[in-house]
UniProtKB/TrEMBL annotation:
PANTHER family: RFBJ PROTEIN, UNDECAPRENYL-PHOSPHATE 4-DEOXY-4-FORMAMIDO-L-ARABINOSE TRANSFERASE-RELATED
Residues annotated as domain Glycosyltransferase 2-like: 21-174
The protein, known as: Glycosyltransferase
Pfam families assigned: Glycos_transf_2
Domain of life: Bacteria
Transmembrane segments: 243-263, 275-298
Statement: the UniProt record of this protein carries the keyword Oxidoreductase: no
Record's keyword annotation contains Mitochondrion: no
Length: 322
């Protein structure tokens, strides 16, 4: 006979959860040893996993010497590393943190306690000073711009969608599709939580500068383009009726703007003197109708995919619910 839910939760509180600290790394030999040591001190019972992503320095050796479980991911890009980590590592609670030493280990226990106490699926450590100084002015401006755009498009759940410091439930990790390849993976995580309306929370945490000898892997314009593309694709996938509705409106508006002078001329003279323009207007109206049709069809598909995601999430159950 299965135990009542209250009894299961009581057992959960008595049995320490298995915590995995996940550290994706690419050429982080100057910082990874300190990151591993700091998180082992902050979370003594946790297992620290360092996934080496095609490093050309001694990242793997240094991490292993510091006490981490070291594995390799041959596909380049943070998104590929996160997908591999989420697939391979089995735990009750997951803590994702960058290997560059910019995130405060002291916030880790509070994030995990909040996740377990409130039965959340994700806790994001919003970086306290990131909007003031993100190491580069372009990054600071980009953070403001994309966070504002995210709130307008997907919802107000997050203040810092690019934070790489997050705690997850097992249910989130094992139901998250992780389709991104690079640094846009944090945006995908946030959108996934917003789309499924998962229980999430944010706390503030210190965000420091990289230690001397460590170099950033971010590229302002390249990563901004990738994040913009990811947000556009996710918006199309999640809300196709609106997306294609906007496209249809633009096409119909262009058709009306070009067609009104033709209609006025025809009413005055009974002639249509500019046939190429008339053909273009007709084509634009046809494309507008196709866009509306695509939006309606894909909206039904998106609803079916959302149901599948939700069912996959629910099928995993809560921590040690079995």
């Amino acid at each position: 006979m299965p135990l009542p839910l209250d009894a299961v939760r009581a057992i959960d509180r008595e049995v320490a959860p298995r915590v995995a600290v996940l550290v994706p790394c690419h050429n982080e030999a100057p910082t990874v040893a300190a990151v591993v040591a700091d998180f082992r001190r902050a979370l003594p019972s946790a297992t620290v996993y360092v996934y080496d992503n095609r490093s050309t320095d001694d990242t793997a050796r240094v991490a292993a010497a510091a006490g981490a479980v070291v594995r390799k991911e041959p596909w380049a890009g943070k998104g590929n590393v996160v997908r591999r980590m989420f697939a391979d590592v089995d735990a009750d609670v997951y803590l994702l943190v960058d290997g560059d030493g910019t995130y405060a280990p002291g916030a880790a226990q509070g994030m995990i306690d909040l996740l377990l106490r409130d039965e959340l699926d994700m806790v994001v450590a919003a970086r306290r000073s990131v909007f003031l100084d993100a190491h580069r002015r372009g990054h600071a401006f980009g953070n403001r711009l994309f966070n504002g755009l995210y709130k307008a498009v997907f919802g107000p759940e997050f203040r810092d969608i690019f934070s790489g410091y997050r705690a997850f439930s097992r249910r989130f990790v094992k139901s998250f599709p992780a389709m991104s390849r690079g640094f846009e993976i944090e945006t995908e995580m946030s959108v996934h939580a917003s789309q499924l309306r998962l229980p999430v929370a944010e706390i503030e945490a210190e965000y420091g500068a990289r230690p001397a000898g460590s170099t950033s892997k971010l590229n302002t314009f390249r990563d901004a383009f990738r994040i913009s593309r990811m947000m556009l694709l996710l918006y199309k996938d999640i809300r196709p009726a609106r997306f294609f509705g906007y496209v249809a409106t633009v096409l119909a508006g262009a058709a009306v703007g070009l067609g009104l002078p033709l209609v006025e001329t025809f009413l005055e003279t009974g002639l249509v003197p500019r046939f190429p323009t008339a053909i273009l207007v007709t084509g634009l109206l046809v494309l507008s109708g196709i866009a509306v049709t695509c939006g309606l069809i894909l909206d039904s598909v998106a609803r079916g995919r959302l149901e599948q995601k939700r069912l996959a999430y629910l099928a995993l159950g809560t921590r040690r619910a079995d």
